[in-house]
Amino acid sequence: MNYFVTGTNGYSATELNASGTTSTTFDVVDFGLYQINVVDSNGCSVLVQDVLVASPPDDLDISINATVDCVTGGEVIVNIGTTLVSAGPFFFDIYRGVIPPAPPGGTWVAEDSPGSQSATFTGLIPGVTYTFIVYDVSTGCSYFETATAPVPTNSTLTTSALTSNNITCVGSADGNVSFTVNSVYLVSTDVDYEIFDALGLTTSGVTGTGTVPAGGSLSVSNLGPLPFGNYFVLVTETTGPNAGCSTVTIPFNITESAIDLTISATVDSNANCNPNSGVISAIAENGTAPYVYQLTTSAVPPLASDPSWASASTFNVNANNYYVHVMDAYGCIKSTPVLVLPTDPGTRNRCLCEQSMYSHRRKFRNRCDLNHDWYASL
Q: So where are the chain's domains?
């Protein structure tokens, strides 16, 4: 088994387990969301996602102001929990995907008043759930905790039908997401939408705009491209009484195969005079199973939407030049070099190739035999 651990915070580690043991240990010390991908020698894999590495969940008390203001944003007060017995002082921050350098400086916020062991954050995005960091100066330790509820919002827009497409081939960074925005308003509503990292709340830079019709829905398809990560889509109203308020989709993962897809193919049997007597077989490895295949005479691979993809990896065909293409579960497509399928020279002369021809009122029948290409008989 080979083990691959990847974090949305940039962490990446691999254990290529040549000895064949069934467990291994990774020293993950940074807060974040991780995925574990276990791949066997045949390229088959098991993926475990949304593994949260964090400090104990009761170190901080997070109070969210119920007052909603779509213009100025929300307010959250973060207090030191009773489990942290320390004189401090303490500094506070919003987790943005990375651990900032130790305070003071940067984006750290000091206690509201010395010794209060609390800090107030304002201007927060309505509808979003935040994660906070506390740094204890006296111990040098940091503590992380995610609020149990989002910042309140006045928006009654909802999202549904979220589906995500993972990265096709390793390194392509071409994941995307589709979703629907639903409205019960009596008038149409203009919206902006933007994809954020679900834990760090950093923007992906992928944005869009649209209009949700009165009492209707706005469908957004294949919004991307996205690299590996855990995301949500923020949908913000830009017109009407709730302009500035927002709602979010459920979080979704974009992942990729641990090892890139490969394909090999062989000519197992040459063709003879019988139709489709040649045999070509292909084997796919790595990527993400299951696989589907196509055999064509063109080096240009078929589209992922082509209806001719099938699970069969052995092909009975006539003599010609061919290419075998494979597509895995994530839509990665790979192709072989050209495969030359010849007619077996040992069978060419065994074919009965009849040709009738008339000349000077005589009929000649031409046939192949074992030792001569042609012979003529009256």
A: 2-53, 60-146, 158-254, 262-343, 349-377
Q: In whole angstroms, give the CA distance from residue 78 to residue 121.
A: 8
- Contact indicator for 286, 199 with CB cutoff of 8 Å: no
Strand partners, 35: 6
What whole-number distance in Å separates Cα of residue 49 and Cα of residue 47?
A: 6
Q: What is the dihedral of CA 133, 139, 140, 143, to 10 degrees?
A: -20
Residues forming a β-bridge with 235: 193, 247
Question: In whole angstroms, what separates CA 108 from the centre of its chain?
Answer: 33
Considering the entire predicted model, what is its pTM?
A: 0.80
> 336 and 299 in contact (C-beta within 8 Å)?
no
How many helices and strands in the chain, by DSSP H and E? 1, 29
Domains 60-146 and 158-254 share a fold: yes
- The tens-digit pLDDT sequence of the chain (378 residues) is 787 888 877 888 888 876 666 677 777 667 777 888 888 777 778 888 878 776 655 557 778 887 788 999 999 999 887 666 677 899 999 998 887 888 887 889 999 999 898 999 999 999 999 999 888 888 888 888 888 899 999 999 999 999 999 999 999 999 999 999 999 999 999 999 999 999 889 999 999 999 999 999 999 999 999 999 999 999 999 999 999 999 999 999 999 999 999 999 999 999 998 999 999 999 999 999 999 999 999 999 999 999 999 999 999 999 999 999 999 999 999 999 999 999 987 665 555 443 343 344 444 444 444 444 433 333
Does domain 60-146 fall under CATH 2.40.50? My reply is: no
User: Three-state SS across 5-21?
Assistant: EEECCCCEEEEECCCCC
In the block, which residue shows the tokens 């081939």?
A: 169
The top-level CATH class assigned to 158-254 is mainly beta
Which of 328, 299, 285, 294 minimizes the C-alpha distance to 313? 294
The correct CATH number of 262-343 out of 1.20.5, 3.90.1150, 1.10.3470, 2.60.40 is 2.60.40
